From TrEMBL:
CDD domains: HTH_XRE. Coiled coil: none annotated. PROSITE patterns: HTH_CROC1. InterPro entries: Cro/C1-type_HTH, Lambda_DNA-bd_dom_sf. It comes from Bacillus sonorensis. This is HTH cro/C1-type domain-containing protein. Residues 1-44 form the HTH cro/C1-type domain.
């Protein structure tokens, strides 16, 4: 955790909050982290789901 926080230039506490969803992870953070972990662009979809629950969608009236 400390290594990743150092890599991102943030404190360990801030990184922990990002990792646990208490602070939003930016697109830049996500890009840096995935690159650091060696996750190839074509495999990045493992972090996303195609199914979204009704609670996570907004209905337009």
């Amino acid at each position: 955790m400390q290594d990743m926080a150092d890599f991102l230039g943030i404190s360990k506490g801030t990184y922990s909050k990002k990792e646990n969803g208490k602070i939003a992870l930016t697109v830049e953070d996500f890009s840096l982290i995935s690159n650091r972990l060696g996750i190839k662009r074509e495999k990045i979809d493992i972090f996303f789901t195609k199914k979204v629950s009704d609670l996570e969608t907004t209905k337009i009236s």
